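Data availability (excerpt). The following record was deposited with the supplementary files.
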Amino acid sequence: MDKIKINYFVDVLLFLSAFACMITGVLKLAFINSISISTISNYAQLSFVHDWSGVALLIFAIIHVLLHLNWIICMTKSFFSKKEKCDSEAK
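Predicted structure:
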């Protein structure tokens, strides 16, 4: 599989894990305001999904940065040096 397809799948998984983490975080806040004995198991399940989607988010974010490391280095160098330009191969 080429780098473009890998990047696409990593970005999709990054988005999905971020979305799951955000939605479960909002739902956890809603549960805290209306918690009762019957919802404690639901809250635990929600926390489990929230925690593991956060772990997945971290892993995919690290992979995303590693896939773009050459571009990040090139852009950082060009930001601090007026004469260095980034070429298309650094992407």
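Summary of structural features: Residues 3-90 form one domain.
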